[in-house]
Amino acid sequence: MAFRIAPSILSADFARLGEEVRAVAAAGADLVHFDVMDNHYVPNLTVGPLVCAALKPHSKLPLDVHLMVRPVDRLVADFAKAGASIISFHPEASDHVDRTIALIKENGCKAGLVLNPATPVSFLDYTLEKLDLVLLMSVNPGFGGQQFIRSVLPKISEVRKRIDAVSKMRGHDIWLEVDGGIKTDNIAEVAKAGADTFVAGSAIFGSKDYAATIRQMRDKLSVL
User: Fold this and answer.
1) Is 173 designated active site?
2) Cα gap 168→116, rounded to integer Å
3) Alpha helices in the chain (DSSP H)
4) 30, 35, 132, 196: which is the annotated catalytic residue?
């Protein structure tokens, strides 16, 4: 299994975002995770398409945009134009989940569905074959720096089984991403549960040496 590490700029120094993106790219990141919060779906306000567009020239890494906004459809095209490679959204934020997935793909991006810790896996029953990514939140969305919710581990395993079944039947590669409280001391456990893509914010941007931290994460994953 190929593993991917996606530093979340939510924990970066916002006064130096371009520099921070260049730094994690040079440190060995695979993606740049871009958290969008609207102070409506979640109790926080972060950044929008203009910031996404401004950061795009600073790295060739794919921009992994996580929309924590409601309603979601209005912003899909804006983020696609701003340079997003992947756009993920919460089913609770869409009136028609299938329509939002189609809208993301029509705008040239890969589509992801995000499940909060309390969001049932049944949302994947009619959508998984259409997705490129499933993002499981291991914290409740809205703030960075939270502690990993261990009860999400069985959920990761369940979603991995579903993904493997669809991939075997359809030959369609679907990533399983986990976001929230990922650190060097638990990334291997999360990978063993079935994740292949890891969002890490404070664990990377809060460290003194981004490259060393990412290297430590890869070392933990390399023994699996």
Assistant:
1) no
2) 26
3) 17-26, 49-55, 73-82, 97-106, 153-170, 187-193, 202-205, 210-222
4) 35
Q: Is 125 a catalytic residue?
A: no
Q: Is there a contact between 152 and 117 (Cβ–Cβ < 8 Å)?
A: yes
User: Is the pTM higher than 0.70?
Assistant: yes
Q: Which one of 38, 64, 179, 196 is the catalytic residue?
A: 179
Q: Please name the amino acid found at residue 112.
A: G
Q: List CB contacts of 178: < 8 A, sequence separation 6 or more.
A: 135, 136, 138, 152, 156, 190, 195, 197, 198, 199
Amino acid (1-letter code) at residue 61? L
Residue 136, amino acid: L
Cα gap 114→132, rounded to integer Å: 12
Contact 116, 88 (CB under 8 A): no
Q: How far is CA 151 from CA 20, 34, 62, 95, 193, in A?
A: 32, 25, 30, 28, 11
Interatomic CA distance for residues 54 and 83, integer angstroms:
9
Question: In angstroms, how far is the first alpha carbon of the chain from the final one?
Answer: 9
Spatial strand order of the sheet with 175-179 comes to 4-7, 197-200, 175-179, 133-137, 110-115, 86-89, 63-68, 32-37
Question: What does the pLDDT look like over 108-146, one tens digit per residue?
Answer: 999 999 999 999 999 999 999 999 999 999 998 777 767
